[in-house]
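Researcher: Following up on the earlier apo prediction. This time include the ligand. It's zinc ion, with the SMILES given after the sequence.
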Amino acid sequence: MFPRFLRLFGLKLLLLSIALAATASSELDWLQSIERRHLPLKNSKARDPGVEVDTILIHFCSDVVAHPDNPYDFKRIFNGFIIGRVSAHYLIDRSGKIFEMVELDRAAWHAGKGKVPGKPERENRLNEFSVGIELMGMGNLNEMLRFMPEDRFSKVKPDDIGYTKFQYESLRKLISALRQKYPAIKLDNQHIYGHDQYAPGRKNDPGVLFEWSEIGVTKNW
Ligand SMILES: [Zn+2]
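Model: Understood. Below is the ligand-bound prediction.
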């Protein structure tokens, strides 16, 4: 017979592993339950066979150039993806609501041209390896001047600049669930990074207002 404390310890371990397994499966169920607003299939492609998804790329999007006073209308933003023939797997609105726009087994068109230090196979091919997440958000004046003049940007309400705490909450939950599905995605800046890191100069999202510490990642390149 095992000593009583060892039996209790074993029971605790068993219960812990059951609890962890339940969390894992409930996170995958939750991923399945995200509201679908799928873009047309011509906005994405089947993933190349044999490629392991190990990266999350973070973006911002808005309709601020045309509507600085109302930059986060879902329909206009969604149509912008269709017209631009681009896509991302997820869109998180200002209230933290998450929409799935592309199924995870397809490569969305969000990364474009860029490169990752030390990973030449990613050059201009990151879509194959990644999940794209768009946050309805925008950068500061300095970052937005490339899209619009200062007097237009001055019409933006201060609360519409940057990101909301609801978005960070949802993003944390989404990243956790995606890491259950794709264990190769580690919680670090080598696996979770910004479009501005992948394509510096060409892209500046999510920009300086995005708080990496909110998702437990230290930006280090
Ligand atoms: Zn982007």
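Model: The chain has a mean pLDDT of 95.
Researcher: Noted. I'll compare it with the apo version next.
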